[in-house]
Write a structure and sequence with these properties.
Number of helices: 11
Oligomer: single chain
Helix content: 10-25%
Distance between the termini: 17 Å
Number of strands: 21
Length: about 500
């Protein structure tokens, strides 16, 4: 059977499809999995809620990209609106809009999973060949230090001046133009995300991909999944067209990512005693903006190419690692209070503005239970995510650390993202940060790293099989038992490559 990509324009009437494996989602988990299954000779149907965009259709405009390439038009939040959640929604999922940072799952995290949750087969040695395979396919390599832009250089220089850890990142790019547009969809086909790699591999091997198609419920009979009921979506919108797609499959793999994967199981009546949706972790992020006397131009150049893990392991306290974000107008301005003079000041001096992000891995801390995905009366996913005292305390420490880095990196001014922003004029003024409020709704909090909700050892076993449903699998970041403490994309690629065998053997 020849592969093909179908969109809403092709889906004008109700249809029923038959296949051996239905893969829900085309992101880091779904695309890697589908490609391997199709290349193994299986008949695969892939479902993707978002549209199929290519380099020719990426607008390079923030207002267009956030509305068309992100979940809920980049306005997804926790149910108290305290945390903004950035997730991809197009063919390629989050890999189409991420900033290309690639880390293997840390050994200490894998050892913790083995000790704490009894997970077997996920040792560093067992995962190594899977990481090696995807690293080669995605051309993952260290970014040249000579090409680190000034925004990332502030982090590198600041950490080195303080005697703190700093490193150059590995990225999945080839022929990168250093445009800085990663988060808006690469217009040069340089980002080696799923859109250019494993999705085409799957289609070339015969997989059928249906874009603009939202999986709504799983169909089950006598303890087995029999397929997926989906609805066709108007392109680049959240509105169903009224056309339905029914997929009958021998095996189903849910790869919609944390939040969407648990929601699909919940809509299908699979809550497993409240375990589905539980133990969701986010890597909550707080940031800092700095102004310099020199040009930074953080809107150009690789968005992330440096990081510091100086504070990853803080013993009994929540750890965090530090990276940067691109300094494009909408993204940079969204962190500040709207209509604030501080916002106007920084946007008015955008070429001289740098940013720092502190990314917290609270999921391994006993005082931070994580969050819970649930569905509202309309069946749409929501997320509760409290900010307990240990996490709020880490926000304070991280803000101080970022300010130290900014000044050591040459900033003349550093400003927090509080509702009433705190502006520091020198490193001698750091004490002003200590008495500020930290936590939910006290300042901007973001996350683009979502994990858990269909946790391995609870909802699925070590082979990704959902408890009690032998032909249903979940293969994405929702299976991680804890937060990772690093950017998660490569970890998802690796576990999806490993899962190919288990899913294929179930057909």
């Amino acid at each position: 059977m020849s592969g093909a990509i179908y969109t809403a324009a092709d889906l004008t009437r109700d249809q029923t499809l038959d296949c051996e494996v239905c893969v829900v989602g085309t992101g880091a988990g779904g695309a890697v999995l589908a490609a391997g299954l199709a290349e193994g000779g299986l008949d695969v149907v892939m479902l993707e809620e978002g549209s199929h965009h290519t380099a020719a259709t990426f607008s390079q405009l923030e207002r267009v990209a956030y509305a068309t390439l992100y979940q809920e038009r980049a306005a997804r939040t926790t149910d108290d609106t305290a945390i903004t959640i950035l997730q991809g929604r197009s063919v390629g999922g989050g890999t189409t809009v991420n900033w290309t940072t690639c880390y293997r799952t840390p050994d200490r995290v894998l050892h913790h999973w083995a000790r704490q949750y009894g997970l077997e087969g996920l040792s560093p040695e067992a995962l190594a060949p899977h990481f090696e395979a995807v690293e080669e396919r995605l051309r993952i390599g260290q970014w040249p230090e000579a090409l680190v832009n000034a925004n990332n250089r502030v982090l590198m220089d600041g950490c080195r001046a303080l005697g703190w850890h700093a490193e150059i990142l590995r990225r999945n790019v080839f022929g990168c133009r250093n445009s800085g547009l990663c988060g808006l969809g690469c217009p040069y086909d340089a980002k080696q995300g799923m859109l250019l790699t494993y999705v085409p591999d799957a289609v070339a091997a015969g997989a059928r991909l249906y874009a603009n198609t939202r999986a709504w419920t799983l169909t089950l009979d006598q303890g087995r999944v029999t397929g997926v009921r989906a609805e066709v979506m108007a392109p680049d919108s959240h509105r169903p067209t009224g056309v339905s797609l029914t997929v009958r499959a021998r095996v189903v793999a849910v790869c919609g990512g944390a939040i969407n994967s648990p929601a699909l199981l919940l809509r299908s009546g699979l809550d497993l005693g409240g375990r589905v949706g539980a133990r969701t972790t986010l890597h909550p992020v707080v940031g800092l903006a700095a102004l310099h006397d020199r040009e930074i131009a953080g809107y150009a150049g690789a968005p992330q190419s440096a990081a510091s893990h100086q504070f990853t392991d803080r013993g009994d306290e929540v750890g965090f690692f530090i990276e940067v974000s691109p300094v494009q107008p909408m993204l940079a301005g969204a962190a500040f209070p709207p209509l604030s003079p501080v916002t106007a000041e920084h946007i008015g001096q955008l070429p001289r503005m740098s940013t720092l992000l502190a990314i917290h891995h609270d999921g391994m801390h006993p005082g931070c239970p994580g969050g819970t995905v649930w569905i509202n009366d309309a069946g749409h996913p929501r997320l509760r995510y409290p900010v307990p005292p240990p996490l709020a305390s880490a926000f304070r420490d991280a803000t101080r650390a970022m300010a130290q880095i900014a000044f050591a990196g040459g900033a003349r001014q550093a400003t927090t993202y509080h509702r009433q922003p705190i502006t520091l004029r020198s490193a001698d003024a750091l004490g002003a940060l200590d008495d500020a409020a930290y936590g939910a709704l006290a300042h901007s909090i973001f996350s683009a790293h979502l994990m858990g909700g269909c946790v391995m050892g609870s909802v699925v076993d070590a082979e990704h099989r959902v408890e009690g449903v032998p032909n249903l699998f979940v293969v994405d970041g929702s299976v991680f038992p804890t937060a990772l403490g690093v950017n998660p994309s490569l970890s998802i690629y690796g576990i999806a490559h490993r899962a190919r065998r288990f899913v294929g053997e179930a057909v």
